[in-house]
Design goal:
With 71 residues, this protein is mainly α. The protein is 23% helix and 0% strand. The chain has one helix and no strands.
């Protein structure tokens, strides 16, 4: 009889699970001369998201953003 090996207990096994967070930009300035900026509400949403990410037990190791200013 072969012993079963629990992969979670195998040497060198990383018990953390990879996560991918996809987050859209906050509210844009619809109808403004420059739509590529956040509205005041969008700014508040971005601040709240930043605070949430900072409080996470296992915060993101990398953050990537697109070329737009509102991102």
């Amino acid at each position: 009889r072969r012993a079963r090996i629990d992969p979670a207990r195998a040497p060198g096994h990383d018990r953390r699970v990879s996560r991918l967070l996809l987050i859209r930009h906050g509210q844009a300035s619809l109808g403004a001369a420059d739509y590529d900026v956040l509205s005041p509400l969008g700014g508040e949403q971005a601040d709240a998201l930043g605070q949430h990410l900072a409080r996470m037990i296992d915060p993101p190791q990398a953050i990537y953003a697109g070329p737009r200013r509102r991102q």
